[in-house]
Amino acid sequence: MRKNLIGTLAVSAALMAAGFVHAQEIKSIKIGTAAAKTGPGAGGAGVTHWPNVKLWVAQVNKGGGILLKSAGNKRVPVELIEYDDRSSNDDAVKAIERLATQDKADFIIAPWGTGANLATAPVFAKYGYPQIAVTSVTDKGPELAKRWPNSFWLLGGGQHMAGSLVDLLKKMNAEGKIGKKVAMVHVADGYGLDMVAGARPALKAAGFDVVYDKSYPLGTQDLSPIVNEIKGLGPDAFIAFSYPPDTFGFTEQSKIAGFNPKVFYVGVGGAFPVYRNKFTAATIEGVMGTGGWDVASPKIQDYIKAHKEANNGGEPDAWASSVQYAALEMLQQAIERVGSLDRAAVTKELGSGEFDTVIGKLKLKGNVRENPWAVGQWQGGSFYGLAPTNLPGAHAPVLKPAWK
Amino acid sequence: MLTAILVASVLLGGAYALMAMGLTLQYGVARIMNLATGETLMGAAFGSFWLFTAMQLSPLLSLLFIVPLAFAINWAIYRWLLTPLVRRAKNQGMLEVDSILATFGLLFVIEGAMLAGFGGNYYSYSFLAEPVTLLGHSFGLNRVVAFGVAALMALALYLGLNRTRYGTAIRAVAVDPVAAGLVAIDVPRAAAFAFALGGALTACGGSLLSMFLTFNASMGVVFTMKALIIVIMGGVGDPRGAVIAAFLLALVETVVAALVDPGLTLAATYLLFVLTLLFRPQGLMGRRT
Amino acid sequence: MIFPMQRREVIAVVASTAALALLAGLPLADDGFWLALAISIASYVAMATAWALFSGPTNYVSLATAAFFGSGAYVVSALAETAPWPVVLVAAALVGALLALATGLATLRLSGVYFVIFSFGLAELIRQLVTYYQTQVTGSVGRYIFVTISASEIYWQLLGLCAIALFTGWAIQRSRLGFALRVIGDDETVAAHSGIDTARVKVLLFCISGALIALVGAVMAPRFTYIEPQIAYNPMVSFQVVIMALLGGSKRLWGPLVGVIPFVLLHEWIAGRFPNHTHLLLGMVFLLVVYFVPQGVSGWLEKAWRRIRGESA
Q: How would you classify residue A264: left for phi > 0, otherwise alpha for psi between -120 and 50, otherwise beta?
């Protein structure tokens, strides 16, 4: 169903409550979204994009909708229009064009993935839609924001993410918890290379001894040769900038090989709930991963609960999910402050205002979110943010015990 | 070190053989280039996942349900979906085009059904993910078990094709369907049987692979491509070729990962494939046409 | 070259020129969704027609389309910021032709399904090597292409490529090369015995086809803004081109054209109506087409045309 049923029902309910239909009344706010439901990106978008969009629409409409001054200071429900971009950038461009010109969406949620966000950025710019890009790890955020002033980049880039990881290792080394030997492996794809490009100079500057630094191609099915070789080198810290299937593979192989470094770090997927469900909380105690949140904060706790209710018990991941949800909260608050569907004014507000979201107070600088979470760790079955260490709610790292 | 590489490559080769053995039967005997083979694999993986998480049924026991079911479904697919295409095809080329188009449609249907049931998320579960020591090195028990079952299957297939009357008939169809018909072999039935058996083997592979791979509904095409490479490198019409190709590719992948650079593993396997065909255009065990 | 033209052909040339002029005006009417859709269609028409130039007459099903497309896109990422656009296009066409030459020379001994999968393996090999090169040398697989080319300009270039592909196909059919091809397609042994250098003909054709597909990749690259091997060398592109061309019928020059248009439109309609079940429904429709339109869309159209003429005559 293209038109969201809940949205339509809410519209009718609101109209009936009003008792009459005013000629100029805005019946609903059309929010468009296009992301992967099929293809290689479907796995990632199925975790971070779709469940949060679904949750947000349900939450907003439960509260009556978005408050609009221009509609007589009334709450107007959200109507969701969704498309599948089949993980193809060509289709993503087509879908955003369609949302902008055919469906005449009032606002469009940024797509999932670095490639799709960059391919569609000119389209968002052409029609003056704000683009709050979440799921794209790029160091070029500031440059992109300059090129497309209506774009906002929320997840950070490799330099910050990998730099924070190295800072953490440095601190652990200074405290005498770990030695200087680091083994690093990365997937030969966008995320892995961005991260390793940030990690290499940082590790060198911090004086770490990198004993292994190699890539592996996307879709590698047997990671045991890599794990066995690294085990033989006996590093203190193991860093894998990996994608979900490899994240699972490295963990399983390391457990089988009895490879027990003091720091065990994996990339995308390490913060997914399915990771814990597969390996059990006891097994992954002390595993670090890309991402993080202040899991103890009441807001995040409420968010997790609501996310589970809206998605048949599905939990959010501890990296991009809450940020995606926060991006949607930002959009809602910006619209309410402007009081109308004026996209230029909303874009301006997004860039200059401060927003109260599930991930705390959020204020962008130069359209980029500063100092996002970079490293987290499984401790007692929950994924806690560790670094940057100056963030509120940052936990102290623990050394990884032997695999159970 | 060397023994570790060898054992690892043998285990990986077993996994690759599991992906390709069914397809080689389907293409070699029934002459259907089944582009939906990866989706069959994924379907079985989801089946095992569901039986394991919802009913606590071990993936090895779930084979007892999934394999016969896959056999029946594939029989039906051949009987109702593909037989009309086989009948109307005037030559092998036309059948190839039609079967590529039809199984491409089938691929979307199966994938769409899995998406409707499971969504696009990643799935994975732990089964026998414990170390077992072979020749002084640790390996995953799930991989070893999968290899064992693959080896048993390959042996059974070999004996079935070479030591039974019906197996001989199937091999005859693989060599020349027209001549096979002349010597009173029921060619349509043999082809349907081979297609169904191929589908059952693929499903068995999917259940076993699900024990140690992370998968989602959209990943089938990755396995289809791997299987196509293996089948063609081995040579059409001889399951032994596929098994040999699977082990060669796995050996190259493991050796390159351990001794050269893991970044080059896939490049090396594709290079081996390309070179093989350059020097043996009919594949390792294929017959010259 | 002067061809003696028949009246039918004159009509065809005039009609297609008029159609082209009409299509070129589309961006004036709408530069949003419909233009985006038209770009999608034009890119696939150009690729499928170029694909069928080689694969139609020779019966060699190539799955190397992604290799040409991706290499064209990568030429743009390497040169676009330093060289003028026409130079970039010429370079892309050359790279495509050279790649096809190397592939063609290497694959002469292969036939049937071995060629199909070989071409696929080769495309994947190139993708892996490009990835590894970028990992090792430039330290990043992703490349940003900040070239300001509007969607209308991309569309016009694609339309030009469609015209070139169709014209090339028409010119080949009329030439000695085309005659040689038809003989090869009917029976390669007969062709070789009657003194046709089958190898040279096939390789030449493959080069033309490869250069055109690489050009499509080059023209489309600025639309992506960001490319990485995953995006540029997407194997689904190879499969879709084959499927669309076969659906239309690869034996006729205009076959791929009538395969691409309904496929893309149908897909767009299903994707808009049922975003959660696109693949399921698309697959079912696809199966129906395979069963009920056995000679491809072009065969079906021709039959329908003959029936109309037969009835009216």
A: beta
Condensed to tens digits (0 to 9), the pLDDT of residues A275-322 reads: 998 899 999 999 999 999 999 999 999 999 999 999 888 899 999 999
Residue A367 to residue A145: CA distance in whole angstroms: 6
- C90 HSE (CA, 13 A, CB side): 5
Average pLDDT estimate for B26-46: 92
**C-alpha distance from B265 to closest chain A C-alpha (Å):** 7
What's the CA gap between B223 and B215, in Å, rounded?
11
- Whether A102 sits inside 8 A of C128 (CB atoms) is no
Q: Are the beta carbons of B264 and C277 separated by less than 8 Å?
A: no
Q: Which of residues 233-252 of B touch C (CB under 8 A)?
A: 236
Domain ranges of chain C: 7-235
**Position A262 pLDDT exceeds 90:** yes
Per-residue pLDDT, A19: 41
Distance (Å, whole) CA A191 – CA C218: 25
Structure confidence by residue, pLDDT tens digits, B247-256: 999 999 999 9
Distance from CA of C37 to the nearest CA of A (A): 6
In chain B, residues with a C-beta closer than 8 Å to the C-beta of A215 are 261-263
3-class secondary structure, C155:
helix
pTM: 0.86
Contact A119 C35 (CB under 8 A): no
What domains appear along chain A, each with residue ranges and CATH number?
5-157+296-363 (3.40.50.2300), 158-293+374-387 (3.40.50.2300)
DSSP for A266-297, please give it: E-TTTT-HHHHHHH-TTTTTTEEEE----TTS
On average, the pLDDT of chain B sits at: 89
ipTM exceeds 0.90:
no
Q: What are phi and psi of B176, to 5 degrees?
A: -160, 100
Q: Which residue of B has its CA nearest to A36?
A: B120
Q: How many residues belong to chain B?
A: 289
pLDDT band at C120; cut points 50, 70, 90? confident
Integer Cα distance of A2 and A21 in angstroms: 24
In this structure, what DSSP letter does residue A27 have? -
- In degrees to the nearest 10, what's the CA dihedral of B129, B131, B132, B133? 160
- The pLDDT, as a whole number, for residue C311 is 62
Q: What is the pLDDT of residues A3-32, one digit of tens each?
A: 455 555 555 555 444 444 443 568 899 999
Q: Tokens for C15? A: 């009609």
Give the residue carrying structure tokens 């038809």: C182
Q: Tell me whether B5 touches chain A (CB under 8 Å).
A: yes
For an interface test with C, give the residue of B95, B218, B273, B288 to mutate (most C CBs within 10 A): B273
Residue A52: which of A347, A244, A320, A370 has the closest Cα?
A320
Query: From the CA of B17, how many Å to the nearest CA of chain C?
Result: 18
Crossing angle of helices B265-279 and B220-234, in 10° steps, is: 30
Which residues of chain C lie closer than 8 angstroms to B33, CB-CB? 113
Q: What's the token pair of residue A341?
A: 């569907």
**What band does B262 get if pLDDT is binned at 50, 70 and 90?**
confident
Burial class (CB in 10 A: 0-12, 13-18, 19+), A259: buried
Sequence-ordered strand ranges (E) for C35-173: 143-144
Contact between A376 and A318 under an 8 Å Cβ cutoff? The reply is yes
- Pure H helices in A151-235: 158-174, 190-205, 224-233
Number of neighbours of residue A107 by Cβ within 10 angstroms: 24
Task: Identify the residue whose tokens are 């059409």.
Answer: B236
Measured CA distances, B135 to B7, B12, C76 (Å) = 8, 17, 52
Alpha-carbon distance values, B160 to A175, B25, B197, B239 (Å): 65, 13, 12, 12
